[in-house]
Design brief:
Helix 3 packs antiparallel against helix 4 (102-118). The chain is mostly helical. It has helices at 3-28, 54-68, 73-92, 102-118, 126-152, 156-160. The longest helix is centred in the C-terminal third of the chain and has 27 residues, at 126-152.
């Protein structure tokens, strides 16, 4: 196996593990699911700015987190799909550090409200849920994600190769 593919696998695995731990932390504050979500782990969806290994990393992390949290199957499937779509979008926009934070917000705001309505029977309606999910994603992806990019940029070669 090439050194580069080992690095890719290790990075993806580490990102998945960190995503899972951060989701468990958010769940401890009742912020990992429900109408108001601020999943700290979603900050990692900006990591495709640095490495393509972040795409499978955050997707696998979301999948594992949703399973561990005992989420209903629509959340396991469509929540992980929303994270995958957001991460792929971030990877495609990786040339612009400001745009890279937007795809996870859009993907989650469009998909997760349907999961909340149909898998969790949370009232409030799709438009309100879109707003609350988008707000949580803006906090984690745009605000915290921009801070994370700024913090990691000077050491990117040491961390991501």
């Amino acid at each position: 196996m090439k050194k580069k593919s080992v690095l890719y696998l290790v990075q993806a695995a580490m990102i998945a593990a960190i995503y899972t731990v951060l989701t468990a932390l958010a769940a401890g504050f009742d912020l990992a699911s429900g109408m108001i979500q601020v999943r700290f782990s979603e900050v990692l969806t900006v990591l495709p700015f640095f490495t393509p290994a972040a795409v499978p990393g955050v997707t696998l992390g979301c999948l594992i987190s949703n399973i561990v949290l005992g989420s209903p199957w629509p959340d396991v499937v469509f929540g992980s799909l929303a994270t995958l779509i957001g991460a792929v979008g971030s990877y495609l926009l990786r040339k612009n550090r400001w745009l890279v934070t937007i795809p996870p917000v859009v993907a989650n705001a469009l998909i997760i409200p349907f999961v909340l309505t149909y898998a969790y029977a949370i009232p409030g309606g799709i438009p309100l849920q879109m707003a609350t999910v988008a707000a949580g994603e803006i906090i984690t992806c745009v605000i915290m994600g921009s801070v994370l990019i700024t913090a990691l940029k000077p050491v990117r070669k040491h961390i991501f190769g």
